[in-house]
Amino acid sequence: MSTSTLSAARPRAAVLRTEVRLFRREPGGIFWILMFPTLLLVILGSIPAFRESDKSLGGLRLVDLYVPVVVLVAMITAGVQSMPQALTGYRERGILRRMSTTPVRPSSLLSAQMLVHGLAVLVSTLLALAVGRVAFDVRLPEQLAGYALALVLAVLAALALGSVVSAVSRTTKIAGAIGSAVYFPMMFCAGVWLPVQSMPHTLARVVELTPFGAAARALGQAASGDWPGWGHLGVLAAWTVLLSALAARWFRWE
């Protein structure tokens, strides 16, 4: 590895370490991304009706369907609530402008934010899967490769959406308002109030064209042992590309 490559890597690593420490000191992010999704699963799984097989769902229980849903809750929270607040705050306080005069580029901060939130979602996913298995006998994903692929695409879509929210928000207050406006429709599409599999056919078809509706179906299919539908994976990939392009076009460091 060349000296110039090492010199460039050291500041990026330092930024990543700093962002990890800052995230660990933020109790709100730890609770809402890491703990709340699993807590929601425990609350729902404690309802007796959620633990009964449903013939209309192919013999699955509602608690089985809600494990992928709470995984998506962590993604949505990280993407549209946590990350935009952090990035907009850095811009609002002039931190990104000051970084432009140092060896550390602002893009290193953006990459570190995306990596930290992506890892937080991964930890939340593992926690939800473990609690679902131990507490409610929910089967672990039977199609691991398909589940991992759908999970990665869903995380990328969530972070791309968060980048768009960051790009169009001049202040943290605006980021919070836009994030809240996006948060609840995305939660509905993910199936928080009604699993996508239980939605009326026409509504389900529309919801599956959204990133988190497609992610819910892809994760659910992989969890039951089937390869995720290529249509759902394609929707996730298309949204990721589109949102990333919009974020790159609109994002300003100052």
TrEMBL record:
Claim: Cell membrane is one of the keywords in the record: yes
Organism of provenance: Streptomyces lannensis
Name of this chain's protein: Transport permease protein
Coiled-coil residue windows: none
Location within or outside the cell: Cell membrane; Membrane
Transmembrane region(s): 30-50, 65-87, 108-132, 144-167, 174-196, 230-251
Keywords tagged on the record: Antibiotic resistance, Cell membrane, Membrane, Transmembrane, Transmembrane helix, Transport
Main localization, broad class: membrane
Taxonomy, superkingdom: Bacteria
Family the entry assigns: Belongs to the ABC-2 integral membrane protein family.
Membrane topology recorded in Swiss-Prot or TrEMBL: Multi-pass membrane protein
Annotated ABC transmembrane type-2 domain residues: 28-254
